[in-house]
Amino acid sequence: MTKGHPPDGPSTAFLPAWRVERAEDSPLHHTQAGRFAVPLSLMRGTQRVEDLALILTADQMEALYEEIGTILHLRGPAGLPPAAEAVS
Q: How open is the CA angle 44-49-55, to the nearest 5 degrees?
């Protein structure tokens, strides 16, 4: 193989993207150790590949809560980004 030629085998250009989504059918809960578990689903295109959880300590959960609150506050009550200032 020379530089500039793709390797032999199937192209990955047509594979669906990987995503991690919040699992809709599972509520937040505490682990046996008292940490917070955020249920997630690993997706490949529209197919659910694996269910997993993001495990956070109380401090990590508070920091995430603050970051989400900041983002929501910046987006405004309608969930839209703030309007750009008018140029005169």
A: 105
Select from 28, 69, 35 the least CA-distant residue to 55. 35
Its sign, for the CA torsion 21, 26, 28, 30, is: negative
pLDDT tens string 7-38: 555 565 677 899 999 998 899 999 999 999 99
C-alpha dihedral, 12 to 41 to 72 to 81, nearest 10°: 30
Rounded distance between C-alpha atoms, residue 71 and residue 7, angstroms: 42
Q: How many CB atoms lie within 10 A of CB 23?
A: 16
> For residue 19, what are its two tokens?
């995503």
Q: Which residue has the tokens 């910046």?
A: 74
